[in-house]
UniProtKB/TrEMBL annotation:
Domain TonB-dependent receptor plug: 68-179
Signal peptide start and end residues: 1-31
Subcellular location: Cell outer membrane
UniProtKB keywords: Cell outer membrane, Ion transport, Iron, Iron transport, Membrane, Receptor, Signal, TonB box, Transmembrane, Transmembrane beta strand, Transport
Keyword Transcription: no
InterPro entries attached to this UniProt entry: Beta-barrel_TonB, Beta-barrel_TonB_sf, Plug_dom, Plug_dom_sf, TonB-dep_rcpt-like
Sequence ranges assigned to domain TonB-dependent receptor-like beta-barrel in this UniProt record: 376-765
Pfam families: Plug, TonB_dep_Rec_b-barrel
Coiled coil: none
GO MF, any single term: siderophore uptake transmembrane transporter activity
Family from the record: Belongs to the TonB-dependent receptor family.
Main location: membrane
Name this polypeptide is given: Trehalose-regulated TonB-dependent outer membrane receptor
Amino acid sequence: MHHAAFKQTRLMRYALSAAIAAALAPSHALAQDAAAAAPQDTAPAESSATTLDAVVVSGTARFKGLRKRDASFSITTASLEQIQEAVPLSTADALKVVPGIWAESAGGSTGANIFVRGMPSEGDAPFVTVQMDGAPLFPPPTLSFLENSTLFRMDDTIDRMEVLRGGPSPIFSNGQPGATVNFIQKKGGEEPAGSVRVGIGSDNLRRVDLFNSGKLGEGWYYSVGGFYRSTDGVRDTQFPADKGGQLSATLTHSWDKGEITVYARHTDDKNAFFTPIPLLSRNNGGSLSSFPGLDAQTGTLLGNDFRHVTIPTGPNGQTISRDLADGRGINLDVFGASMDFYAGDWTISDRVNFVSGSAPTNGLFTGASPQTLGSFIAGYGSAGTATYVNGDGAVDPNQQVLTAGFWVVDKEIESFTNDLRFSKDLFEGNTLTAGVYFAKYSSKDTWYLGNNMLLTAQNNARRINLTLADGRQVTRDGFTGTSFFSLRGDYDGQNTAVFLADEWQINDRLRLDGGIRYEWQQVDGTVHDTATVDLDGNPNTLYDNATSISLPSSRRIDQDDKHFSWTLGLNYKLNDSSSVFARANSGYKLPTFDALRDGNNKVQEIDQYELGFKSGNSVYDLYLTAFYNSFTNSPFQAFLDDGTNFTTAGDSRAYGIEVEGAVRPVGGLELALTGVWLDAKYENYREFTGNQVMRQPKQQFRFTPSYFWTLPFGDLKIFATYSRIGDRFADLANTQKLPSYETLDVGANMHVGDNWEFALSGSNVTNELGLTEGNVRVPGAATGGVFMGRPIAGRSYLFSAAYKW
């Protein structure tokens, strides 16, 4: 953005502002139509720089711009600059700006667990769909070891983020009842635009972002950009924790009757994956500190000692070799298009994409708490000799050790989605939309879970070999076991849905909308049978006596499901600055591959109710949303430390209040607050009935004061964010308490002249020790003494300089 324009709308970057509306209005026909959707009494630029006048397309039947003050649903918007000011460590971490969403992003750049409004799950993100330009990246929001945010990398090709919670979401696209996160890409315009951004960070981060866009010819526009990044990571892994990049391009053609944009994106990125580590705990988690030899803020068990491993997988010498640095990365191609055009009295819109690639997991999964090596050996009822695998002789019997598994999950995924809609004005103020959604997708999986190693409990752990005095060999190259759960599966799914939606602006004050959807799903696949064998037939080699292997024989999964959903909402304008809305919907979540494989074949049913108040002007903005939801047939699944695949199912309910607001009392000062209070409990859930829904805090909030100055050479903004995350429980039984914690992030942005931008930010500058995850793989593990938990990253800093035109 040029300096002059930036000064004119200086509140844009820190008030969730009308910059979004401006971004929707290039000189393309359909974008002009979107801007025209707002009432004709739209305020002038300065006063319209408020959240209520921001224009959104997510959650609308026609992909047509709607001002947030007129929307009968909860939606949070953020420009690229606002996302950067939140100092996110990953795509999932950017969702911390959204009230009602809790993202456990301490696992690194990918592989987050994301929770929405008390909706129950054991992890990953079954109630979060990530879209690009309105098309889901992968129709099932979660498969085992894969959730949608892992498939997306943010860079300077992104214009903004829109996050819809509940509302009409169960009707459109893939019918996500939870949260739909829609990233809108930048497109080319009449004037050339671009940027070069260079970033360096305290974790040896080196990053370059590029973007360029412009006009190719009359009615033709382009954009191209991407990033490359390498970093040692927030924890010292002894190898690059994140390394890779992305390239994206769009081509837009607009004419009097419509617009079409096609896009392509290739991402090749490797990301280390962090799981719980041992910590010291007092007072049932009330006081946490680092385990001796393993720093909670910067340490990790990962390291070069077992970065490269060879794992036996079959009785005839079959092996696989893996690199821990591959982590939970992706090698993914995305091709898509968005089309909007007029045909007589009809508006026709289509969102289509094709996704293909791999999303592996190569990670260290921890289990039971550490013990001394001497105690570990005594458990075998014999004396023994322990040596380091990679030299340095014998290991001290007092050395703290633990077992942890090198889990391998290979996933090859592919999907095609198409969302086609036809809209027509039936009469003044009323528009009917009919649509059809089609998705076809597949996942080819090969798993080797387990592969436990005997490790020193310290930063960059080392493998230990152990031979017992009675001749038994406990380890092979430090491995105490092989795979306890092997899987070969090949799955296909197909979803078809038809939906009907109506929007009716009854008068200047009252707006109604409603919709119905009917969807049918077909899932089929092949899962190979398994057997447990002694790989070498020698009972004295304990490390391979109970190896899970895949057999040539297989079983079929074949299930069809059908379901109906509906929504009804209204928005009533109290006056020029305030309105209220109410919403009810009934949605569902159809069982996916992994649920069917584990025998959880029931459809989850979700009823949601919302009541909201919105008010704002040039001085303040306020959103208050009360919500209630109820669930039936909510499944739970976890692979326990002993190899057991534990599953159960039941019901739940949740209610709470979200707040999102900002006040600008004087000059460039803004005080912003987002937060949620939540009460979520299990119902009809075996012995867990009445317990708090696991892993979701009862309360969390973020307070962000900022100040903006216009300077002779440009402008400067400084800001800080104080966050508080409340108590949670890591398990169904509510025995593993995860204590509350607070963090502080700081930052500054400066624009110099028309072209230069400089930014400095610090994350967790107080070096707070907070936990996002306990150890669900050890049921009943309490937070006393030594505790396995996944702490947030310690302090880190980032500086970037950008040249824009």
